[in-house]
Please model this.
Amino acid sequence: MTDEIFSRDAYQDSTEAVVTGVTEDGIVLDRTVFYARGGGQPGDTGTISWDGGEARIADTVKQAGEVLHLPEPGAAAPPVGASVTARIDWGRRHTLMRTHTALHALSGIVYTDYGAKVTGGNMEPGVARMDFELDGISQEFGREVEQKLNAALRNDHPVHVSFVPRAEALSDPDLIRTKVSLIPESVDPIRVIDIEGLDKQADGGTHVRSTAEVGHVRVVKTESKGKANKRMRIELAEPEAGAGED
Ligand SMILES: [Zn+2]
Model:
């Protein structure tokens, strides 16, 4: 099994590793910083380099429990057993971490203030959508939520990653609400992302350390996707030069 460094430390952008498998589909390493696509978060891109070669990695997926690094078409592959350096495209990943954290904050606010659960969601770097069990939605609602969201993000809530024993997770009301029981029984402990005071859910993705790092978020569209299913689209503002670097 690949050691998934990103699940403990989302800020590590590279690692030394050993190639444990190469198939037609991709490259498997003994450890990696590449996040495998899942839970609405895209897989990481980057490079795997070794003595004498380098492969651009176009995507990362989970296949049969392994993290599979997918090289761009025509890229060379390292031999099994080779020592490599695996490096993600950090700018893209950090934007995804900000985007993912924004979605959790949004889901926490819409649940706490309006009692609506999330029915789905997806993200790309800097843009995302989330669907809610709401009967109605309007532009005014979007603006109201946008204000609440940005106020909450500015309050700089710490974001904690923990690994909770399954039995404990299954009896936590916050985690029950976000359907922790649907996680396969073999998963124990369960990884939990807790944005202190805002949102708590079982989640495999990568997030920033505290909400101020997300920056400003705009609600760019509200739309109906059917009865009791309303969609909000959000967009991250680009961070100002030098902002957040203290
Ligand atoms: Zn998530």
Residues 39, 100, 104, 203, 205 surround zinc ion (CB under 6 Å).
